[in-house]
């Protein structure tokens, strides 16, 4: 049986991906889109809604670990960051498939009852399609 993305992941809309996992990295394009969506000037957005992990910007998290834009639903869903649009098909899985299994411990939509090679192959196909797409994976 050939697996595709829908065979490995069915979003349960639980919001667990919006909590923890080292935070949500954002690109400059993400920052511009979110700031415009919430009608906030970019400098003010950066000051109010971002923190840093090394040199990379992250969306701030509330004290309960959830992304600042999680409120039983993603309040910025139409412009959610690339990292969120990719979930759980992220490059870290290609580096080490154990990342898939670690994420799946809290994400009820992720299957782990398939071979690691299958997980790697599906993630690679999803990311390859994204990089070939002119819409930046949206």
Mean pLDDT: 91
Largest sheet: 3 strands, antiparallel
Alpha-carbon Rg, integer: 15 Å
H/E element string?
HEHHEEHHHH
Number of separate structural domains: 1
3D shape? globular
| SSE class | mainly alpha
Helix content: 40-55%
Low-confidence stretches: none
Count of individual helical segments: 7
Strand content: 5-15%
Sheet with most strands: strand arrangement: 1-3-2
The counted number of beta strands is: 3
Cα distance, first to last residue?
27 Å
Structure summarized in a few sentences:
The protein has one domain (5-14, 21-132).
Secondary-structure blueprint:
Elements lengths: L4 H4 L15 E2 L2 H10 L4 H8 E4 L2 E4 L22 H5 L4 H5 L2 H7 L11 H17 L6
Antiparallel strand pairs: 1-3, 2-3
Explain what you see.
With 138 residues, this protein is mainly alpha-helical. It has one domain. It has seven helices and three strands, in the order αβααββαααα. The protein has helices at residues 5-8, 28-37, 42-49, 82-86, 91-95, 98-104, 116-132, and strands spanning 24-25, 50-53, 56-59. Strands 1-3-2 form a three-stranded antiparallel β-sheet.
Keywords:
138 residues, mainly alpha, 3-stranded antiparallel β-sheet, 7% strand
